[in-house]
């Protein structure tokens, strides 16, 4: 099992070291191991959790909602989860999916507006900047 130091995780996830430490402090993504010197060490699964968080953040999900989504994913990945737990997790993920799709639609519309404005303003640039 490959263990990564926080700097490597930061590079892979495009999250700052400070942000990764914050997620550890609030218990959202706790590193799977520590080095002999006490440094945080992360697994591929830890990195995947951080990437999921990075994807949720710009869509407006709170830390608690991120925790709920990660917990639901854990339930579905755990072969020992009960049927009732799996149903609750599936329902939660369906709601998160709906909200993510709504956020994507909103962001797509906003991106269209930004492109329109950029094109409009480009007409006023001096010729040498075109």
Could you walk me through the main structural features you see in this protein, from its secondary elements to its overall organization?
Residues 3-72 form the HTH merR-type domain. With 130 residues, the chain is mainly alpha-helical. It has 2 domains: 1-59, Multidrug-efflux Transporter Regulator, Chain: A, Domain 2; 60-130. Helix content is 65%, strand content 5%. The protein has helices spanning 6-13, 17-25, 44-56, 63-77, 83-122, and strands at 4-5, 33-34, 40-42. It has a 3-stranded antiparallel beta sheet with strand order 1-3-2. α4 (63-77) crosses α5 (83-122). The longest helix is centred in the last third of the chain and has 40 residues, at 83-122.
What's the arrangement of secondary structure elements?
Layout: E1 4-5, H1 6-13, H2 17-25, E2 33-34, E3 40-42, H3 44-56, H4 63-77, H5 83-122
Antiparallel strand pairs: 1-3, 2-3
Helix pairs in contact: 4-5
Protein name: MerR family transcriptional regulator
GO molecular function, one term: DNA-binding transcription factor activity
Domain HTH merR-type: 3-72
Summed up:
The chain is mainly α. It has helices spanning about 5-15, 15-25, 45-55, 65-75, 85-120, and strands at about 5, 35, 40.
- Major beta sheet, strand line-up: 1-3-2
Low-confidence stretches: none
The chain-level structural class is mainly alpha
* Rg, nearest Å: 20 Å
Distance between the termini: 51 Å
Number of E-type strands: 3
SSE order: EHHEEHHH
Helical amount:
55-70%
Q: Overall 3D geometry? A: flat
Report the portion of residues in β strands: 5-15%
- Mean pLDDT over the full residue set: 93
Biggest sheet character: 3 strands, antiparallel
Write down the domain tally: 2
Number of helices: 5
Organism: Mycolicibacterium poriferae
Protein name: MerR family transcriptional regulator
Keywords: DNA-binding
Pfam family, one: MerR_1
